[in-house]
Amino acid sequence: MGVPDHPNISKSEAQEPMTDPAILLSLSNITKRFGALVANDAISLDLRKGEILALLGENGAGKTTLMNILFGHYVQDEGTVRVRTNGGNMTALPPGSPGAALSAGVGMVHQHFTLAENLSGLDNIRLGTEPLLSLGRRATARTRIKSIIAESGLEVDLDRRVADLTVGEKQRIEILKALYRDARVLILDEPTAVLTPQEAEGLFVVLRRLAANGLGVIFISHKLGEVLAVSHRIMVLRGGKKAGELTTAEADRRSIADLMVGKAVAQVTRTPGRAGDPLLELDHVTLAKSGSRSAVADASFTLRAGEITGLAGVSGNGQAGIAAMLSGLAVPDTGIMRLFGAPVTRADPRRLVQQGVARMPEDRQHDGVVGTMSVADNIAIEEIRSPGFSRFGLLDNNAMRARAESAIAAYDVRCPGPDAEARLLSGGNVQKLILARVLEREPRIILANQPTRGLDIGAQAEVHRRILAARDRGAAVLVISEDLDELFALADRFLVIHAGDVVDAGPADALDRATIGLLMAGQSHTTEPLAQ
Amino acid sequence: MSLRLDPREHAPLSLRLLVSLLAGLTALLLVAVPVMAAGANPFEAYLLMAQGAFGSMFALSETLNRATPLILTGLAAAVAFRARLWNIGAEGQLYMGALAAVLVGSGFLQLPAPLVIPAIMLAGFLAGGLMMVIPAMLKQRFGADEVVITLLLNFVVILFIQMLIEGPLKDPLAMGWPQSVPLLAEAKFDKLIPRLRMHWGLIIGLVAALILWLMVKRTVLGFEIKAVGENKAAARFAGIPVDATMLKVALISGGLAGLAGVGEVAGVKGYLSADLSPGFGYSGIVVAMLAGLSPIGSVVAAVFIAAVFVGADSMSRATGISNYLADLVVALSLLCVLVGSFFLRFRLRWQSRQEA
């Protein structure tokens, strides 16, 4: 690997002259097949200097495959990738060589970071660019990185261990890493999937600044709002093909959503819920911080049958503590949590499940499924000891399979079958699997923690529809989300959490984003009247 | 041309069998080099080994006799490793099982004769199990590394055994040899065939493998062990009692190693001595790895490893080549299977640069 010249490629380069000197990067007719599946079908793309190009598409549309080809992780079956060199010429990148992509000035920030957690930010940025045992160079590197930070606004503490940084800070380190390697093209794969709205806003500011300085940015996403907010041009992929390309100025939500899914998106509309009996009550509950779980300082609220309660808040303000208690992973340190009127005194997820609590974990890949176990196993896992799936300690494999087959059909879980390992499923399908697992029991209480984070629009609408249907059936629902759009789409009533304190913000109809935002920032209800 | 690694989605059973088989064969092939260096013809040497291991009823009995503890220590490692519990202490657990068998079966306890064998088996299982439950609890409570603890406990246990057989347990009739008082006649395992050393321990090992296989495939416990081993966080979230499951695994794993010790005392030696096991506990790790942690595979792998040891002894007598060769084969097959497991996770692909 790593031999830059190739006779075939240089020949084809000569055929297509690159006229526009502002073009930094040009992909032409990229095709990639995985067996029978055509992941990328003759896709062409140009990126200009100072441009933010959004690459939009549902999960499985081929966005990540295309970027992996560009970066040399995959080898395309057809087509070429050309990059402008320092000399100003367009040269073809040898396929399958990340090293060549890096040295040609292509930097990529993956969705899952590639950082050494035990090293400082500074060392992570330097890692791989020079021998680590080099006296004096550390200081030189620091000076250079400081100047990049000053130029870009990517503020971060370079001397802290990466393990101690927040997700947003880690992402900044990743971007700095690319810039430190003189990237002229920066690819960001779903950069906001892991960020709070505030962190995402900060990222956009940085990206605009970097683009203004001449960087070309490819921004992969499936969130329409942020794509409209940050990009100059939008390219939509669908089913491996280019579905459309338009400038952001001429685009609107509706038109790009239709391009993405290929058909008009069914809008989920919420009808008001009818609140019934209280099913779960928290009375002045506190819970200490533990590991990465944020503390709950004072939480009092009630979840009622037939009502969706939305819990808004900036990430890390105690949502994880609330979720842990409602998941049965923790019990309050002080205060009382009553489930169907009876105090919960023991952390026992199994008992909660038996009592009719459905739990959708925040990190569905990590906490929701055992990747190396089958779809059928993962659907049965919460109730594996119940007579439905086992008897006298022996598994009823037939019952597990039957349940899995009906769940796959009813919830449209796209997978090779009940025996397929869960790790092979996409994020959206893992969430459908979890929905199938928890909703089929007709639960009376539902905890939906970040229910659509990282999902595409189609899957999001499906999850929202299921949650609303469960509410209409009489379930009490708590939705925890950092996406205010999602909360306004679902919630009948709002709670806001700040620094571990839960504030009841009242019915959703009387609220707007600004009010919620103030509460999220810690402005108290009582001291500062909200009414205009 | 360049070489690429593609992750595999799934490693079929045939491939897993092939990797284990090739690992064993490669180890034998590599060991041919020192055999030649020692001045022998490797073909003849291996032929002699094969004859020594399988060439007669006597040879076969010796091999299966040797395989008996290896099946059990192999299962001990396999069940623990499946749950990502790294039990390196089967050697010590084996000795504790043997000690328990002697304490219960040599007349200190008065039991009706038909109950003696079940009693020594239960005592051996619990003693071995306890030796693994303690490190597992230390891990849960304090985060202590079970690799270090179980490994070092092996030496503690053997010194403890030496102290006992030089002291309170010493057989006064053994003419000064450091060995324990013997088991009662009714505590001893019957031979499977008269005049051959093969004993009922082999059947116990086979039954244990079968039970473990069923446990893995068909039981809630097997399901929960897998979930806990593969993803602790998801298992806990789903309501599986993670700590309790780990303790069950520890008990079963240590208990199986303890049973191996019972078998050696009750089936072979009749008393406890500090040379009861020539590293059966450690070889069990190789057995489990060669078997790909499969219970049934552990039986086959144990017979292979036993055959190597028994065959090497026999070959050594005929050719004068040291029987350390057997250790070499065992060590190399572990290395080969570790290399081979890489190919279970990745597919190697040659691709020409022209392809693109």
Question: Overview of this structure, please?
Answer:
The complex is a heterodimer of chains A (532) and B (356). Chain A is α/β, with parallel strands linked by helices and 532 residues long. In chain A, 33% of the residues lie in helices and 25% in strands. Chain A has helices at 7-15, 63-70, 98-103, 121-126, 137-152, 167-180, 197-212, 224-230, 253-261, 319-327, 349-355, 364-368, 375-380, 397-411, 427-439, 457-472, 484-490, 513-520, and strands at 23-34, 37-48, 52-56, 78-84, 90-92, 106-109, 185-189, 216-221, 233-238, 241-247, 278-287, 296-304, 307-312, 334-339, 342-343, 357-360, 390-391, 394-395, 445-449, 476-480, 493-498, 501-507. A six-stranded mixed beta sheet of chain A has the order 6-7-8-3-9-10, sandwiched between helices. Chain A has a six-stranded mixed beta sheet with strand order 16-19-20-13-21-22, with helices on both faces. In chain A, a hairpin with a 5-residue loop joins strand 4 and strand 5 (90-92). Chain A is globular, with a radius of gyration of 25 Å. The N and C termini of chain A lie far apart (65 Å). Chain B is mostly helical and 356 residues long. Chain B has one domain (2-355): ABC transporter involved in vitamin B12 uptake, BtuC (Orthogonal Bundle), CATH 1.10.3470. Chain B has a two-stranded antiparallel sheet with strand order 1-2. In chain B, helix 2 (42-54) crosses helix 3, helix 4 (90-105) crosses helix 10 (242-269) and helix 11 packs parallel to helix 13. The longest helix of chain B is centred in the middle third of the chain and has 30 residues, at 113-142. The A-B interface holds A 1, 3, 6, 8, 75-77, 94-96, 327-329, 348-353, 359, 361, 366-373, 377, 381-382, 384-385, 390, 393-395, 397, 421, 424 and B 2, 4, 9-10, 218-224, 226-227, 230-231, 233-241, 351, 353-356.
